[in-house]
Every structure is written in C-alpha cells, then in structure tokens.
Specification:
Helices cover 52% and strands 0% of the residues. It has helices spanning 10-14, 22-51, 90-102, 124-141, 148-170, 173-176, 191-205.
Length: 206
C-alpha cells in the first residue's frame, strides 16, 4: 500500500504524468520547477525582511555638533564653534553667552542671581569664570555629547556657585548697578587682544 501524497509536495501540485507520454512529462516538470521557484522567492523575501538593515541616515540627519539638546528650552547663544571655518574666536562665544545668561538666569529682586555686569572683562577672575561657565554650559547642552546629567549638574552646582562668587568675590555692588569700580586683580589684556596687538605690530613693520 503506497503512502498518502503530501499535499505540500510540488510534484503533487504539478500532477503526475502518464508513463511514456513525453509531452505530459515535460509539462509536469515545468509545473514542478515553477512551483519551486515561487517557494524559493517566498523564502528569499522572508530572509531579506529578517536581515534588512535600517536605511543609513541622510547627511543632514547626522549628529550636528552645534545642535542643542532636547532639554535646551530657549535658543542657545551663538558661538564661534558653530562655524569652525568662520573668523570668530572664543571671545564671540563668551560675549554671546554673557548676554544670553543675563536674559535667562537673572532671579528675583534680592536674590544672588544677578546679571553679569558690563565691566566683567575688567575683572580678570570674573572673566575667567564666565569663559569657563560658557564652555561648560556648551559641553553639557550642545552637540551629540550633550548629557542631561551634566546639564543638571551645571544648573545645580556651576551656576549657583558662580552667582555666589559674582556678588561676593569679584565685583563691587557699584559694578552690579552698572557703575564700574576697580577692585581685586588689575585689568589686563586677554590673550586674544595680545595676539591682535602682536599681529598689528608685525604688519606695521613690514
């Protein structure tokens, strides 16, 4: 007694050819091959689905070194680093940060969250603090390496510490009110001003 035919067998679906009938045998074989091809195509489609890679991001979707992180609520200050091929230097970054700080992190009357005074460049210790404050803010909040933990640490540690030293260590109350008063370390040219002076002197000698 012969075994029952497998309904999924391609030979069955093509039909059996009578022995000795060559044309019928060719037709049966052709049907068998077509069935196998269809099955192979289905298998190939499944394999392609399982091994498919996500499309590569377009160039404009790649990590932008100047893009603010999702938690940066307001438009960040412009910086020289946003255009490495530009002519701006870090003074541009720090100047813009100081202006941005003064419209963002000023507290209620009587608090220590006072605006950075216009004379900050004339107080060397304060100028150093503001430059570091600007770049530490950028590191925590701008570009693909921005970190919400670092941003929170900046808000929790760096900014309050700076606000305290601003009013306690670096400037007189007159400076905070807009009237510069000398005190502490004497004002001096920063390294960018010195470089500009040297370049100017060198060009005048030629």
């Amino acid at each position: 007694m012969s075994a029952p035919a497998d309904p999924g067998d391609p030979a069955d679906s093509a039909g059996a050819a009578p022995p000795g009938d060559r044309d019928a045998q060719i037709t049966a074989l052709t049907g068998l091959v077509e069935t196998l091809v269809r099955k192979l195509r289905r298998v190939e489609g499944k394999v392609n689905e399982l091994t498919a890679k996500p499309p590569a991001p377009a160039e404009d979707e790649e990590d932008d070194p100047a893009a603010p992180a999702a938690w940066v609520w307001f438009t960040p200050p412009a910086a020289a680093e946003n255009d490495p091929d530009g002519e701006e230097d870090p003074r541009f970054t720090v100047d813009n940060f100081a202006a941005w700080y003064n419209v963002t992190f000023v507290g209620v009357d009587g608090s220590r969250a006072r605006p950075i005074p216009p004379c900050w460049r004339q107080h060397p210790g304060l100028a150093m603090e503001i430059a570091v404050l600007a770049y530490s803010w950028r590191a925590a909040n701008i570009g693909p390496n921005a970190s919400e933990r670092d941003a929170q640490q900046w808000l929790h540690q760096w900014r309050p510490g700076f606000a305290d030293r601003l009013t306690r260590d670096w400037v007189h109350s007159d400076c905070l009110d807009g009237d510069h008063r000398d005190g502490g370390a004497a004002a001096r040219a920063d390294r960018f001003e010195l470089a500009d002076q040297l370049a100017s002197e060198a060009s005048s000698e030629t």
